[in-house]
Structure formats: structure tokens, C-alpha cells
Design brief:
The structure holds two protein chains of two kinds. Chain A is α/β, with parallel strands linked by helices. Chain A contains eleven helices and nine strands. In chain B, about 30% of the residues lie in helices and about 25% in strands. The chains are: A alpha/beta, B alpha/beta.
Amino acid sequence: MTNSPKSSFVLSHRHLLGIEGLSAADITGLLDLGEEFVTLNRQIEKKQASLRGRTQINLFFEVSTRTQASFELAGKRLGADVMNMSASSSSMRKGETLIDTAITLNAMHPDILVVRHHASGAVALLASKLDCSVINAGDGAHEHPTQALLDALTIRRNKGRIEGLLVAICGDILHSRVARSNIMLLNTMGARVRVVAPTTLLPPGIERMGVEVARDMREGLADADIVMMLRLQRERMNGSFVPSVSEYFHYWGLDEKKLAYAKPDALVMHPGPMNRGVEIDSIVADGAQSLIREQVEMGVAIRMAVLEALSRALPNA
Amino acid sequence: MMLSDRRPILFANARIVDPSRDLDILGDLLIADGVIREAKKGIGAAGVPEGTDVVDCRGKVIAPGLVDMRAFIGEPGAGYRETFASASQAAAAGGVTTIICQPDTSPVIDDPATVDFVLRRARDTAIVHVHPMAAITKGLEGREMTEIGLLKAAGAVAFTDGARSITNAQVMRRTLTYARDFDALIVHHTEDPDLTGDGVMNESEFAARLGLLGIPKAAETVLLERDLRLVALTGGRYHAASITCAESLEVLRRAKDQGLNVTASASINHLTLNEIDIGPYRTFLKVSPPLRSEEDRKALVDGVASGLIDVVMSDHNPQDVETKRLPFAEAAAGAIGLETMLSAGLRLVHAGTVTLPALLRAMSTRPAQLLGIPGGTLAHGAPADIIVIDTDVPWLVDPTELKSKCKNTPFDEARMTGRVVRTIVAGRTIYEQL
């Protein structure tokens, strides 16, 4: 085991429940640490021992491919024992309450619990009943902090900075935890944030969260350095929030024509999984301006950074 | 659109009424190349271009052609009731130069291809302008909103579920919200279907005597109140499709006083007829919403006079014998009106309750403004869609002479005073009463 990080950053929080509450210094510390793990992940020897002996449980009440896989990989590369639990196999299916699940898990002495839940606030509720560190891997439409961090790392690596950039977040803002975490992180780091969506997909009061609001893509993408697209779930596109896929794509789907409204060197991001032909055109998703694949790579690195930085502050570290 | 006639025509010595500019003068109107050149005193005296056809209009009124904001045409799907061709003939004879057709057809006008079909069909067969409204919800089912952006881009001038009401408040909220992004006008028929139930006429003593189930006014006011609160919440642009009672006027006044983006129509039937006219179960007077009391009718007339009611429309709804020659409760609702709306409206003018400019504003200028379409004005450069009215000529409504395919007029055999004597669309005379 020769690998060990040079950064000695310690996250001075017990949990990572959201971007809210993180300082610019916290975020920069995590991004710097993440950068080191990017290098590590590109080596043949990707393992290090900093979480050796630690138990990490990934508790996913909502299905996930990339988030769960990257947390699993991140924990294993840091030497932790990682266990995955999903809603379909857990006692929640048998009617156990969230609190009872927490108490049961607590008795097994995990060091880090990674939780995704469909209800906003559920992860914080669990955290209040547990002795270990809790990482929010997405709670309802509230927060998804590691996504915002990996997005920030991706932006910083490609633009050299975050401060002063104009980031347009487009699509289903109303139901998006990714949007909320990104709005907070980007504001904390000094970026300008603009949300672009039909009003039916904007939470009322969003303009008071430190964002500019645009209803159409031409106005919304003007001068943007980063165009961040969000997924529109299928059940929301057939007349309830927007009339149809074809109308949504016509007015809000990112194609080459709309991307041309942004700066010529604008970069395109998407948290995945993508609906090609709904919120994004394949030519753009796979094009030269797309960072979508890089985002996945950064996902593993940033989750290693979060695990590492939190574990350094564990009581028995 | 219409073929225009390039020949200049001077309408001389007329009373010129242009509500779009608060103009009401004795003077001349010159049109050429299918557009209005000018309207003022003494154009004729100053000399007109060579070849100008000079028409002496002494004693007549010149006004913008009527824009009928609510007319059901049977195309597509019910051409036996009315076609664009027959409706536009009726319109021309009634002084209506623009028809706004409704989407409750078969198939429903709820996708851009159908809007395109309607526009092409009307272009090829109608002699007046036709603009469709598109459905608010797919299949008029009140559940899922239509492609408001694409439909508007295709040519839908507003959105309505026709004679159906949207009971789901969430659907209405989201639709108003979404439509606002496209500055689309939502036109809603406010009649709660549960409160309406099996009712067939106004709920009143008269209904009790006839032994017919009544429809309470609350069926209208409950939905109207709800809608206006949703307008306040969403900032949407809203038009009440057909209000019928004094209580609704109060609701409307409050919303307008609050500065909400709200307007309303009343049908010519509700302004000139009341529930008593049903008499011995006359099914031609069965309309939806139902004719109300005389007090309500008077209140509506005052609403038109004051401008609280923005638009007066025909609510033209052709029904043929097999849907009307039935016991009252079983008969279809609806009355034709394109051809008689102006004459019926003149009853109010002759009674001294509404001025001619106020009537024409509600039948022409306001609907054109609300829908964002040309017409409703005699301003320089506007399309020469104009009518010549003889306000004093007496005539009898003879159903056999009506141009509409169906003859279900509530003014069957009625005596009228005043009618359109010449209708011009894009400079071309399409109707002339000889």
C-alpha cells in the first residue's frame, strides 16, 4: 500500500446531508481531495487503506445504478467493507418503519451509512437516530450533495474555475434534488446560476434561491458557460406538467440549435440517466462539448473524497 | 386567406363607428387594395383616386366586421350540421367577418395537424376569416393538457374545452401556469357538471312549474370563483366563455378590480332572451348554460354597457331536427346565431340600454384584441373587413331564408329592427342585402 493522499483536509461535519451548511472552504477541500483520487483511479493500483476496518452500508430505498455503484467502488478502493442493501430486499418491504430500520442498522455498528430515499428529509431523520456518519445519496427532491460536488469538480477541471461562470440548469427543477444541491453549491462558489424551464416545472419562489429564472432556452442559455440538463421523468411528460415529449423537446430539449444560444465554448452536463430525444439530443449528448462521461468518472473520485474526509473525523479515527 | 379586391371604394356620408379608436363621426371611409386607407370627414370632397367606386351611405353605419368569438362549426366530423362554407355564408349575412371555431369536433382539435387541417379547409371553402381555438385538454377529457405551444404556433388563437368544464383544479392550475409561458388565452366554460346534474334549464319557479330539473346559478359561480383564484395564483390569462347571471358579474368585477388578467363573454341569447321565452317547452331556446331570469339578463346588458363584459358572441351551435324535435329534457342544447347576433344586439341599442359603439366594441374590437388577430378596427392599414349597417330597417326572421345548414334559431319568426346590408372581407363584398 503505497498510495496515500497528500491533502490532509478534514470535513468538520459528522454527516454530509446536503450542500447547505458547507462553506466555500469545505467545498474546495473536497474538490482538491477529489482531484487526487482522480489520479489514483487512473492508476493500475487503485487501492488505499485509509478506510481499512471500516464498515460502509449503502442503503438505497430508491433504485440507482451509477450512484450506488460509485459509492460501492469508492468505499472498496479506500479499503472499507461495503455492504449494499436495497429497498426490495430490506425489511422496509415488510412494513418496518424508517426509524426501526435505523435502530436495527445501528446495532451492527457501521461507520458510514450511505442513504438514498424517495422522501425529502428522510436521510436527515435517519441520521438523527444513528451513531455513525451518514452520507445523503439523494433524498426526494431535496438534496444530492455528491452529485453537485462531482459536477463542480468536472466544471473546475474543464474551466479552471467555478467563480464567475454562468451555469444554466435546464428542465425539471421542481422535482430535482440535483438542481437544489447545484444551486447552493454554485452560489457558494461564486457562480451565476440561471434556471430554465416551463413554469410548471419550477418551484414557486425559486427566484428567491439566488437564481435567475428564464422560461425559454434562447433567453435562458444566452452567455452560458455551462448548460446542465436535467432528466424529465416519463410520468411527468404526458400532460400533467408538460403536454408531450414532442412539445417538451421542441421548446426545452437541448439540440445543436439551442446549444448555439450559449457561449461557443459552453460545456454540456447531465446527471444521468439521460432520456435521449426528450431533454437532450444524441448529437449534443455525445458531442465535443459534452462532459457527461467525465461526470461519471468524477463521481467515483468525489465519493472517495467524501468518504475519506468524513472518516478522518470519525470519533475513533 | 381571402382574395382581396384591389379596387378602391369610398363609403360616403356614413356614421363611422370605430370602437378601437373611440371614433363615432359622420364622414367617409376609403378602402383600397384590401385595406382601410382612412376614415374621416370629407375624403370624398377632397377628391378620391380615379376609378373609385363611391357608395352613398347616408343614414347607414360603417363599422369593423364582427369577430364572433364562439361558434361551433361541424368540421371536422359533423359537416351535416355545419360546414365552413355554410357557416361563412351565414356569417357574411350576419356581418361576421371573422369566425372563431370551437375544438369540440370529431376528431377534437387537440393536435397541431388538426389545426392545420381546419385552417386549410377554411381557406379553401369559407368566405370569411376562420381561426380555430384548440382544446385545453387532450380529447376534452379534462385530464392532460394539450401541446399549447405547438398548437399556438400552428394557428390556434386560444384554448378551450368547448362546452365542457375542467373540474380538476390541479389540471386548471397547471394549464394556466403552462399557458402563461406562451401568453396563451385560456377560455373556460364555467358550469360544474355535478351541480348541473340532469338539469335542463335555469333553476327557478318557472322550471318547477314546467316540471323540468333546474341548473342552479351556483354551477357557474362556483367554478368561476375557483378559476379566478387560480388566475390570481398563476398569473395566467383567462376568459370566462359564457357568463349568464348577475352573481357572476360580481365575481368578475372583483377579479378585475384586483387587476387580474381576466375577461368574459356573454352570448347574444343570454342578453336578449330569458327563461320565460322557453314558453311551451320550445327546444330552440334550450342552450348551455341555460337562459336565466329577466333580472340576470338586465344585469348582463348593464355589464356589456359598462364594459365589464368584454365580448358578446353568438354561441352559434347548429342542431338539426333529430336532436331538437324531442321532449325538452331530451333535446340537444344549442342555438344558431351567426346570422342574427347583430340584429338581436340592435334590440339593446334601440331599447337605449347599450350604445351602438359599446355593442360593436364587444362584438368586434375586444375579441380581436383578446385573440391577437387582425380586425375589429377601421385604423389605417387594417384589413378592409367592414360592414354597412342599416340600424332601422324592419325585418322578420324567416328560418327558411337562413344560410346555416340548421334552422334552430331562437328568433324563429321574430321581428327585428336593423341588419347588416353589406359585408366586406379584405375589400371584397361577400354579402349585399338588395
